Amino acid sequence: MANTHWASLDPARREAFERAINVSGAGSVLVQNFTNRIIQQLSIREFGALGTLDRKPGSGSAAIINRRTASSMAVGSVWVADTDSVTETTGSYAQTSFTYKTLATRGKVTRKMRARGRSYIDILAEEMMQKADDFNESLESCIFVGDTAAEANQFDGLLTLIGNVSGQVVANSSAAAGDSMTLAKLDEAIDAVKGAGNRSDLLIYGSFQGLRKLNAALSANQRFMDSTEISAGFRVRSYDGIPMITTTALPDDLSWSGTALTGLSGEITNPTTALVIVNKRHVYLEELTAMTMMPLARDDSQFEQFDIFWDGATILANTKGASILGGISAG
């Protein structure tokens, strides 16, 4: 049909048609390309802890917490006859502190680059926004794997804080390589958290792989996850009424001794992951200075700079307020 139509053209019109602009003739000269105005951040980040932990204002140089260890109430000393003397038993008190640490970074763009990109986007504002995402990634990471023994300028994260408390690390497996997740052990880790009876106060943090391991354990036992609503109206999966929160800050290359975490990164031979269960009443962020973005005074015509900073710490107010399920195979 097309050939018939072509043949029906008179010679003058056929010649005009042959002279029509084509791709090889025009090249890229007569094409106006469109650049999408959205700049894609090339990262996969889930800020589960930053999005769900409460934040409380701080003051001074550190968050200071008073703790009480319960007294002994042995049967022979507290149940008395009418003429017996009452035995005195008292609890013991101790004070601990969480020193506020500073996370800070600086961004910079050149004056000329901002001027050249003005018709596309405000480059300084875009860099500020994307730099804030980088900043949050560092803060989220420290909430879990911060270790003052390795880096004095950090605060201790939850894996370190909980790992230092006897009885709050539950072994999913006694093998250094870990094993598939056992729901009975997860229940044991949940029971180890103070206030576990009120599921609305609890959160389960896990990596993508850690929560997949939980999903596999539920499927194997023909149990199913429900969903629940958390802060800002988001709906997430839940286990036994406890929200399951994904964070990319929990590593899948933890070293496991069979009873404790012995390394927070870099394990290649027997990599494991872990789940962290917290009671939000006892675990929170205390901020001396909330995250602040501050443009800097210009002392050079060539550059515009800004700082982002935060002062605070992760607080484990009650040593029984969180637990770890360790020894989950990440292989």
Q: Please work out how many helical segments DSSP would assign.
A: 10
Q: Give the class from helix and strand content and strand pairing.
A: alpha+beta
Sheet-strand content, in percent, reads 25-35%
Strand order of the largest sheet: 5-15-12-6-9-8-7
Largest sheet: 7 strands, mixed
| Alpha-carbon Rg, integer | 30 Å
Distance between the termini: 62 Å
Number of strands: 15
Silhouette: elongated
SSE topology string:
HHHHEEHEEHHHEHEHEEEEEEEEE
Identify low-pLDDT runs: none
Helix content: 25-40%
> How confident is the prediction overall: mean pLDDT?
89
Q: Topology of this structure?
A:
Elements (H helix, E strand, L loop, with lengths): L1 H6 L3 H8 L4 H4 L21 H5 L2 E3 L4 E8 L5 H4 L13 E8 L1 E10 H6 L6 H23 L12 H6 L5 E3 L11 H9 L10 E5 L1 H13 L5 E4 L5 E5 L2 E5 L8 E2 L4 E3 L8 E8 L3 E13 L7 E14 L5 E8 L2
Parallel strand pairs: 1-13, 5-15, 6-9
Antiparallel strand pairs: 2-3, 4-14, 6-12, 7-8, 8-9, 10-11, 12-15, 13-14
Question: Which descriptors apply to this entry?
Answer:
four-stranded mixed sheet; 15 strands; single chain; seven-stranded mixed sheet; 331 residues; alpha+beta
